[in-house]
Amino acid sequence: MTGGLSLTQLQAGKDPQLTFNLEDTELSKTSKGDGHIIFIQKALNSRYKAALAVDGVNGPKTRSALIKGLQTELNKQFNKKLAVDGKWGPKTKAAIVTLKKGATCNITWILQAALYMEGFNPGPHDAKFGGNTEAALFNFQRARKISADKKAGKQTWNEWFARK
Question: What average pLDDT does the segment 77-100 reach?
């Protein structure tokens, strides 16, 4: 990669002009925490007014904020009438809808965030359930020894959120 410069220009010390697409770039872990988790926390604060400390750490408050986001989206998209309390309880579990490849919605974004938080990279957090999300979900399901059907249903969501 030469940044649009010839070998002669590079040898002469000219700096290349490099560009990249952040969506396709892995964010690294920094002294401030994981870059992807920082992105997720900022999005949760913006979309769901989570008031999270943006520290790049996957902790209980970030988990609770993901549940609040899920509850909010279940209410908006499916009129589930859940309390938006960030707690994984029987009503939230019962309200879960199953996501599969091809889904494009904010719940898919929450799925992608949950996968990343558990160490399974779904690719870009773009709210599109594509091949990368499907592969990450399958690997998560196999690792947790639950039905590896490549669908995010009650059993899969419960595996993320029932554990404390």
Answer: 97
Among 150, 145, 104, smallest CA distance to 126 is for 104
- Of all helices (H) and strands (E), which one includes residue 29? strand 29-30
Tally Cβ neighbours within 10 Å of residue 32.
Answer: 11
Q: Is the pLDDT of residue 102 over 70?
A: yes
Cβ pair 120, 140 in contact under 8 A? yes
The whole-model pTM stands at: 0.80
Q: How far is CA 113 from the centre of its chain?
A: 2
Under a CB-based contact definition with an 8 Å cutoff, are residues 157 and 63 in contact?
no
Q: Is 1 helix (H, G, I), strand (E, B) or coil?
A: coil
Residue ranges in 79-119 assigned as alpha helix (H): 90-95, 106-117
Give the whole-angstrom CA distance, residue 115 versus residue 80. Answer: 24
Closest CA to 153 of 139, 164, 137: 137
CA end-to-end distance (rounded Å), the chain: 46
Rounded-to-integer distance, Cα 105 and Cα 3, Å: 36
- Whether residue 8 is predicted with pLDDT greater than 70 in this model: the reply is no
Tokens of 71: 């509850």
